[in-house]
């Protein structure tokens, strides 16, 4: 019996660290509390009627291969202004921290004729910079991601 215990103790000591159970991965430290600074700057630009600069603010971390999407967003916002009127203000309805690295912001743009529902999703990159990866808006709540973070995760994974 003593030899079995001694052999077991030697086995634990002799095992290299990689063979032992690895500690859980550490989360990247945040340099900013959230993506809010960029989101609010863009909303302020939209409120001032400068949707092109708002889109530039929200997409300034995008790679060049997404330029066509940036152009499409600018065109879509121009159509929005023609349909709903210019924004006079905005309301941040909710900010959801989906994980330590993903945030979702729900905003209502208060336009002259009709409200616009806006959803922005931000990702904290490994280099600790935030990027806004997804921008959706609609004049109806239908078709926009849910307010609930758990429901968001279910629908995101079901779509794959």
- How is the biggest beta sheet arranged? 4 strands, antiparallel
What general form does the structure show?
globular
Examine the secondary-structure arrangement and name the CATH architecture.
Roll
Q: Give me the Rg, rounded.
A: 23 Å
Low-confidence region ranges:
1-32, 152-157
Number of helices: 5
Distance between the termini: 54 Å
Q: Helices and strands: which structural class? A: alpha+beta
Describe the structure.
- Helix 2 packs antiparallel against helix 3.
- This protein has a single domain (31-158), classed as Nuclear Transport Factor 2, Chain: A (Roll), CATH 3.10.450.630.
- It is α+β, with helices and mostly antiparallel strands and 160 residues long.
- 39% of the residues lie in helices and 26% in strands.
- The N and C termini lie far apart (54 Å).
- Strands 1-2-3-4 form a 4-stranded antiparallel β-sheet, sandwiched between helices.
- The longest helix has 18 residues, at 67-84.
- 21% of the residues are buried.
- Strand 2 (102-111) and strand 3 (115-124) form a beta hairpin.
- The radius of gyration is 23 Å and the shape is globular.
């Amino acid at each position: 019996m003593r030899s079995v215990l001694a052999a077991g103790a030697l086995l634990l000591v002799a095992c290299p660290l990689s063979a032992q159970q690895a500690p859980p991965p550490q989360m990247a430290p945040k340099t900013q509390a959230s993506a809010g600074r960029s989101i609010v700057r863009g909303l302020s630009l939209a409120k001032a009627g400068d949707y092109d600069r708002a889109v530039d603010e929200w997409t300034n971390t995008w790679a060049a291969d997404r330029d066509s999407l940036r152009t499409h967003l600018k065109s879509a916002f121009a159509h929005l202004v023609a349909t709903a009127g210019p924004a006079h203000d905005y309301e941040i309805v909710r900010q959801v921290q989906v994980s330590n690295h993903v945030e979702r912001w729900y905003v209502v743009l208060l336009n002259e004729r009709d409200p616009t529902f806006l959803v922005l999703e931000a990702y904290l990159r490994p280099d600790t910079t935030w990027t806004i990866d997804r921008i959706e808006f609609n004049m109806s709540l239908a078709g926009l991601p849910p307010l609930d973070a758990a429901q968001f995760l279910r629908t995101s994974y079901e779509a794959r």
